[in-house]
Design goal:
This protein is mostly helical and 182 residues long. The chain contains four helices and two strands. Helix 1 packs antiparallel against helix 4, helix 2 packs antiparallel against helix 3 and helix 2 packs parallel to helix 4.
Length: 182
């Protein structure tokens, strides 16, 4: 089983990859849009790499935040961003796939956009899985801390009960037996 530290480093690394994929997809989409305007009328899927890149970028930034602050709310936010990135990547792939059927000089940009979408989909899926593992690890850590705290408070309660049983009379212990001093 992976330790929490390994999960955190994996999540951080994967989040940085998602940020890179997001930036690359945005740049590729912007280049594609500028080339399309010169050749023919823009179509529905020409801007989809920009939008999926934005989803990947937000997902990656939330992942970096999640790796730094492991609160339940941030883990839920990151999981939601991963799901949005997953949906954005799938839609981008479908839109760009429809565009590759038309004969023009943009085939290489479309293939690169589909490749980035596939990598983004994979990283969002893996990030969601890692977040679930991290949440499970954090839940187990908090349970152990709570159990230790309850055990410690139970010992303190026993000590208070023993201290209060003397009713203000100092206790003397002989061979493990306590007696009240005269």
């Amino acid at each position: 089983m992976c330790s929490s530290r390994k999960i955190l480093w994996s999540l951080l690394l994967l989040s940085l990859v998602e940020v890179g994929l997001g930036v690359a997809s945005i740049v590729l989409g912007a280049v594609g849009i500028s080339w399309v305007r010169g050749d023919h009328k823009p179509q529905q899927g020409d801007a989809s790499p920009v939008w999926s890149g934005l989803c990947f970028l937000v997902c990656g930034m939330c992942g970096v935040l999640c790796a730094r602050k492991r609160t339940g709310l941030i883990m839920i936010l990151f999981s939601a961003c991963c799901i949005c990135g997953l949906i954005g990547g799938i839609l981008n792939f479908q839109f760009v796939r429809a565009l590759t059927k038309r004969p023009d000089s943009m085939r290489s940009i479309h293939l690169a956009a589909m490749t980035l979408a596939c990598l983004g989909i994979s990283s969002c899926t893996l990030s969601t899985w890692l977040t679930c593992r991290l949440a499970s690890s954090e839940q187990q850590r908090m349970f152990l801390e709570r159990e230790h705290s309850l055990h410690h408070s139970h010992e303190m309660t026993e000590k208070e009960i023993l201290d209060n049983s003397s009713n203000g009379i100092p206790q003397i212990s002989y061979n493990g037996h306590t007696t009240a001093s005269p």
